[in-house]
Amino acid sequence: MTNATRIDGKAKAAELSAVISAETEKLLQEHNLKPGLAVVIVGEDPASQVYVRNKKRMAEACGFHSEQHTLAGNANQDEVLKLIADLNDDTAIHGILVQLPLPGHLDEHAITQSILPSKDVDGFHYINIGKLTAGDTADAFVPCTPAGCMLMIEDHLGSDLSGKNAVVIGRSNIVGKPMASLLLAANATVTITHSRTNDLPGVVAAADIVVAAVGRPNMVKGNWIKPGAVVIDVGINRIDVEVDGETKSKLTGDVDYDAVSKIAAAVTPVPGGVGPMTIIMLMSNTLRSAKLSLATGVSIGSS
Ligand code: NAD
Predict the structure, then answer these.
(1) Which of 46, 81, 117, 273 would give a disulfide with 9, using CB separation of 3.0 to 4.6 Å?
(2) Which of 188, 186, 221, 187 is closest to 204 using CA atoms?
(3) Cα(252) to centroid(ligand 1), Å
(4) What is the mean predicted confidence (pLDDT) over 172-188?
(5) What confidence category does residue 17 fall into, taking pLDDT thresholds of 50, 70 and 90?
């Protein structure tokens, strides 16, 4: 069996970024409207700071108006809700994202549900989840990570997945469940697996498409995979490796890339696969929200 295609999420994200930048420029020229993205972060979690910085950088690269709102780690629920209410009312803002996880004393559910569905570019509001689950994918803001995974799957298998078996490993609201909804909407036969699934390797063995979103380094082995499958690795895990007698930290996915790439048709690497696609889908959702604001008149304006 030959080596699988390495699905280059970084290159695809760069292509999409060029398209988004061009459309942003056109929106500005024709309607004097700049997509506005507000990112809210509470506290000092280092990983969250990196994610927020990357999102801001990409928004600026696409020509967006970009705001970062940093609240102290001990900010209370009312302060966060007040900030979101202000951003909901702000006509220069088309997308609001609250970086998760929030500090434990805050009610994450109440906060994410307080974002207007029309500005919910993360796709976590129940209105958007409902639309996606009902198969109304065209009208929903779809969560960015599964949306990015879906584009990579479509590149390899086309947009109609009739007759394909898809196995999603992980059932989170952010990745696993919306991923399953998207695959189902594309006519795949979908199985969602999780920590209580029996014989996971046996289930995965029947899959033409595998999406791994667990958070366990190199869990998915080469001998689990059906020859010719498309494998999407969502996991981001930091592990220690020995390099020349020194311990170094390295990012790795949920998939044993080297072993799986000997069996599969195509695999995403970590890093450079799903991660860059997630950020670009956030930009895509924000641009879409800005365009929709023209049609609805809900949020016209630019900075
Ligand atoms: P989560 O912790 O909310 O969910 C993990 C899921 O894995 C759960 O549904 C659980 O049932 C399942 N699981 C745990 N152990 C299992 C096992 N032994 N067998 C089968 N299933 C098992 O995580 P999440 O938010 O969905 O994220 C999953 C991974 O994806 C993490 O590594 C996270 O960092 C990464 N992630 C990456 C991106 C990206 O942009 N690349 C975005 C979101 C999440």
Answers:
(1) 273
(2) 221
(3) 13
(4) 98
(5) very high
Ligand 1 centroid – CA 17 distance (Å): 26
Angle CA 135–141–144, to nearest 5: 105
Which residue did the predictor score with more confidence, 139 or 210?
210
Architecture category of domain 144-277 in CATH? 3-Layer(aba) Sandwich (3.40)
Q: Whose CA is nearest to atom 42 of ligand 1?
A: 145
Top pLDDT among 56 and 2 is at 56
Distance from Cα 27 to the centre of ligand 1, integer Å: 37
Domain ranges of the chain: 32-117, 144-277
Fold match between domain 32-117 and domain 144-277: yes
Q: Which CATH class is domain 32-117?
A: alpha beta
What pLDDT does 116 receive? 98
Contact (CB, 8 A) for 134 and 182:
no
Q: What's the predicted TM-score (pTM) here? A: 0.96
Quick one: tokens of 112? Answer: 């994410």
Catalytic residues: 55, 99, 122
DSSP lists the bridge partners of residue 111 as none
Mean pLDDT, residues 94-100: 97
| 144 touches ligand 1 (CB under 6 Å) | no
Q: How far apart are CA 261 and CA 289, in angstroms?
A: 38
Render pLDDT for 253-296 as a digit per residue (tens, 0 to 9). Answer: 999 999 999 999 999 999 999 999 999 999 999 999 999 999 87
